[in-house]
Amino acid sequence: MRISKILFLIILSVLVQACSNDDTLNTRVQTSETAHLYAATHNGEVKRYDINTGQITTYANSSSDAGGVHFSAANDAFTLVSRSSNRLISYPGISELGAGGTQNPETEIAGSPDLQSPRDLSVNGDFYVVSDNTDLDGDPETGEGRLFVYARTSNGFFLRNIVTTKFKVYGIEFVGGDLFAAVDETNRLAVFRNFLANSSSAIRAADKIVTIQGMVRAQGLDYENGVMVLSDIGEAETSSDGGLHIITNFDTKFNTATTGGFIGEADQLKIAGGNTLLGNPVDVDYDSAYDVVFVAESLNNGGRILAFNNATSVSGNIAPDLRYALPKVSSVFFYTE
User: Fold this and answer.
1) Do residues 272 and 314 touch, judged by C-beta distance below 8 A?
2) Where does the signal peptide begin and end (predicted)?
3) Could you tell me which of 111, 148, 277, 331 has the fewest CB atoms within 10 Å of its CB?
4) The pTM of the whole model exceeds 0.90
């Protein structure tokens, strides 16, 4: 059961006070019956933050370097992209483990070790798509990437097909049946229409690529209810030049832009500047019910989770409404009921 957006904003304002030293979570204000933020790190940690109680649960797992993370209520499982074993790994029965401390899932469901340099995960029903930016031809001047399409079964993950892209790919996000992808090392966003309709392994050109003006290097993206949020890591070695680009009425704006065209800065909201603590925001998760963006910030202060309220109405050099430390954080996923 969801409760009011206003109450959720209250908790974030209280959280930022409690977390001013990147140390603890709020334990007083309630948001909804279930409000869990999952996070994975390049140290192999997987944590769940209970926004209601402030309780942190750490899940033991077999990965020493984890990328994208996703929680499925239907499967009562979280799934992560293991960069250390180059496969998808899922842990069911999460609700039976309890909360707080370190929990040890009894069952592990793993896919085959097909990946080489996995980056992000996007889920559409029982299909799990992983982006991989391996340099296939050994030439850094040519761009290529791969999208590994897995079907989840009761026994694990079956590799259905591999789509090779004509550009380096990083963050990915399903919008209905279309798959959007950040063109790595650029400020461009690509789309593959009806992505899952073709089950063959082949090279596929994007149906459309659009430039996001004002962005330096696109990385993470998330879409919900007509709003697309993209993260910009700027210069990878700089811990203070990152940003968020929020595009409302995204479908119309993207469809109106011509192939090879752009979405202008006037059609976006941008959060950036020293107060934001954004340096390398590698992943984002947007929740439209509360109008909040959660961010995996991998570089600033060694790694932080940040959140910004009123995402579709604020912009500029603003401080985050929530922050707490998580070294080498790589991915976030917010689940609420």
Assistant:
1) no
2) 1-18
3) 277
4) yes
Q: Tens-of-pLDDT digits for all 337 residues of the chain?
A: 344 454 455 455 444 444 445 644 443 334 578 889 999 999 999 999 998 788 999 999 999 999 999 999 999 999 999 999 999 999 999 999 999 999 999 999 999 999 999 999 999 999 999 999 999 988 888 889 999 999 999 889 999 999 999 999 999 999 999 999 999 999 999 999 999 999 999 999 999 999 999 999 999 999 999 999 999 999 999 999 999 999 999 999 999 999 999 999 999 999 999 999 999 999 999 999 889 999 999 999 999 999 999 999 999 999 999 888 999 999 999 999 8
CATH number of the domain to which 102 belongs: 2.120.10.30
Name, in order, each residue with C-beta under 8 angstroms of 182's C-beta and a sequence gap of 6 or more.
Answer: 169, 170, 171, 172, 188, 189, 190, 218, 219, 220, 221, 230
